[in-house]
Amino acid sequence: MVQAWYMDKSADDPRRPHRGEPARPVGLEQLRGLGVLYWKLDADKYENDPELEKIRKERNYSWMDIITICKDKLPNYEEKVKMFYEEHLHLDDEIRYILDGSGYFDVRDQEDRWIRIFMEKGDMITLPAGMYHRFTLDEKNYVKAMRLFVGDPVWTAYSRPADHFEARGQYLEFLAQTA
């Protein structure tokens, strides 16, 4: 089951959990209200998983690759990890399936507060287009993830502020309708 919580305001090492005090857990229903989708799958059978294939077909996730984020495998590791952690949005959904290791996606709630989502082996998440977010590894410094896209991949991240994009406007309309 997904683990998520409101973050503290510490500027300490982003790879730490940063749980707010007092603890304020965030449930799946609240994440859904932000447009975040979540599945728990069997990552050991990702190559032949009928459940993954069903999700890909239903949601038109036609393109995929696998990225390993660790010092030994990712060129320009330090630069890329810093880039992933800069607050940004995409014009398309961001879909990630953790095949091994772990890390955190941080997303903004309706009041612009950070929610941290712990992702580990078997977790699959979709962040909607237009949602401000960031990613970091945890203290294990390793994650292997499947990246999925509808159609050809678009890697462009737009740093905040990026409110002028249509995808951001559509996301804000979605939030207003779910409020």
TrEMBL record:
Name the record gives this protein: Acireductone dioxygenase
Disordered as annotated region, ranges: 1-25
BP GO terms, sorted: L-methionine salvage from methylthioadenosine
Source species, domain of life: Eukaryota
EC number: 1.13.11.53, 1.13.11.54
Species of provenance: Physeter macrocephalus (Sperm whale)
One annotated GO molecular function: acireductone dioxygenase (Ni2+-requiring) activity
Known function: Catalyzes 2 different reactions between oxygen and the acireductone 1,2-dihydroxy-3-keto-5-methylthiopentene (DHK-MTPene) depending upon the metal bound in the active site. Fe-containing acireductone dioxygenase (Fe-ARD) produces formate and 2-keto-4-methylthiobutyrate (KMTB), the alpha-ketoacid precursor of methionine in the methionine recycle pathway. Ni-containing acireductone dioxygenase (Ni-ARD) produces methylthiopropionate, carbon monoxide and formate, and does not lie on the methionine recycle pathway. Also down-regulates cell migration mediated by MMP14.
Pfam families per UniProt: ARD
Record note on cofactor: Binds either 1 Fe or Ni cation per monomer. Iron-binding promotes an acireductone dioxygenase reaction producing 2-keto-4-methylthiobutyrate, while nickel-binding promotes an acireductone dioxygenase reaction producing 3-(methylsulfanyl)propanoate.
Cofactors: Fe(2+); Ni(2+)
Subcellular location: Cell membrane; Cytoplasm; Nucleus
Membrane topology, from the record: Peripheral membrane protein
Family the entry assigns: Belongs to the acireductone dioxygenase (ARD) family.
